[in-house]
Design brief:
Layout: E1 3-7, H1 12-15, H2 19-27, E2 31-36, H3 41-45, E3 50-53, H4 68-96, E4 100-104, H5 108-117, E5 121-125, H6 133-137, H7 139-145, H8 161-180, H9 187-192, E6 198-201, E7 218-220, E8 245-249, H10 258-268, E9 274-278, E10 295-298, H11 303-307, E11 312-315, H12 319-327, E12 332-334, H13 341-351, E13 354-356, H14 364-375, H15 379-393, H16 396-415
Parallel strand pairs: 1-2, 1-4, 2-3, 4-5, 5-6, 6-7, 8-9, 8-11, 9-10, 11-12, 12-13
Helix pairs in contact: 2-16, 4-5, 7-8, 10-14
């Protein structure tokens, strides 16, 4: 029986999309050791994989500065964690004798383990894919929406966008190389993507910015929802199937957005629609003040069940949220807050799957008008359906599993 190790991070949006892939690999006879944190143990074990804990060594970062600050700090975070995890788990991983290693694109240590053990490595990109080659097509876009450094003083010294990007990446790479003893790294592809010979993307070329930048080393596997059982006390009986439902959620990390939640109350206090609002576990519900009667507000809601009933989704634009919403043909109003969420908002807008609000504070008027536009125009829903069909047309998880098995079997033949 072939054996593989999967390295993930402790974020819902990076674990949930992989569960179907892992279940399918297990069903094809692959023994999988899946590294994550305890809160995901049961979901992972339900796939048939063997759960392994990072033993508190991960704690993925929730730092959010601005522009280059965030970009460089995040790269440093990934590489510092990589050093710690490789040192701590090297003997354990070596003893497992994996035939290959699959890792989240943020798990640089997975790439390191594969290189040290001399086995194939496969990178899985669960967030919105961005690679260095995209900057060759549109360096201005990359500076604004990936690096988010177009206003940085270091960038104002150059007039040519490609020159700006090239010089910036060179400077950042030298900082990282000096600190970690690395040589000739590409900070986007080698650190943020942990690029391998085979890289799996949970989207389609149809729903990917600058898709032409992605070579055949990138397998577009669409997006499919792996059913998850969530034991959440939710008053489904209060939902009226004859009324449109507005669903509002801003993810599980940067969701301390009291001002936006209050803007939602103001925007929809007199509406005839129902509203379900998930505020996360960092907000005290008492701090929300008076809640309109037609709102259902919880710290956590079963997102898949709500999306089955929703007419529109007001979201931060995380990859998981956008892909799941599209799979249920629910258009979005996107209010991005950090990092690749700005890319997600652009993708939604360009594909006609929803509306991008270019204001992190999102006032009541913007929210109300965004929802009104979507509810009055059926084309948004039709566009979501079209994108979902493009996910299915990739061949999905079944095709991804075939590619993994075919790719790794070549190495087995060579080693014999």
């Amino acid at each position: 029986m072939p054996r593989a190790v999967y390295f993930s991070v402790d974020l819902h949006g990076h674990v949930n999309p992989t569960l179907g892939l892992i279940k399918s690999l297990v069903d094809r006879g692959v023994e999988i050791y899946y590294y994550s944190c305890e809160k995901f143990r049961h979901r992972i074990e339900d796939t048939g994989a063997i759960f392994r804990s990072y033993e508190g060594l991960l704690g993925f970062g929730t730092y959010d500065g601005h522009g280059l600050d965030t970009f460089l700090v995040f790269a440093d975070f990934i590489l510092s964690k990589s050093q710690i995890i490789v040192t701590h788990f090297m003997e354990e991983i070596r003893d497992l004798e994996p035939n290959y290693i699959i890792h989240d694109s943020f798990c640089h240590w997975g790439k390191v383990f594969a290189e040290l053990l001399g086995v194939p490595g496969i990178s899985v990109i669960a967030n919105f894919p961005y690679i260095d080659e995209m900057a060759d097509i549109d360096p201005t876009f990359f500076m604004q929406h990936v690096v988010r450094a177009s206003d940085d003083p270091i960038c104002r010294r150059f007039n040519n966008p490609k020159e700006i990007y090239s010089n910036l990446m060179h400077k950042l790479a030298r900082i990282i190389e000096h600190k970690y003893g690395m040589q000739e790294i590409n900070i986007i592809n080698d650190v943020f993507c942990s690029k391998e010979e085979l890289n799996i993307l949970f989207t389609s070329r149809c729903f990917q910015l600058h898709a032409d930048a992605f070579s055949d080393q990138y397998l577009f596997a669409g997006y499919s929802i792996y059913p998850r059982v969530e034991h959440v006390d939710f008053p489904y009986e209060k939902l009226d199937p004859n009324k449109p439902l507005i669903y509002i959620a801003f993810g599980t990390i940067y969701n301390e957005l009291l001002h936006i939640y209050k803007s939602c109350f103001e925007a929809f206090k007199n509406s005839e629609q129902q509203v379900v609002l998930s505020v996360g576990d960092k907000i005290d519900l008492n701090d929300l003040g008076e809640i309109p009667n037609h709102f259902i507000v919880r710290s956590y809601v079963p997102q898949l069940e709500i999306l089955k009933r929703a007419s529109v989704f007001i979201s931060h634009g995380g990859a998981n949220s956008i892909y799941e919403s599209i799979c249920f043909h629910v258009p979005l109003v996107v209010v991005p807050q950090v990092f690749d969420e700005f890319m997600g908002a652009m993708m939604v807008e360009e594909a006609g799957a929803g509306i991008y609000i270019r204001n992190r504070e999102a006032d009541a008027v913007q929210l109300r008008e965004g929802v009104k536009r979507i509810l009055n125009d059926s084309q948004y829903k039709l566009n979501c359906k079209r994108i979902h069909e493009s996910f299915v047309d990739t061949g999905g998880i079944a095709n991804a599993v075939d590619e993994i098995i075919n790719y790794t079997s070549k190495f087995s033949i060579i080693s014999q």
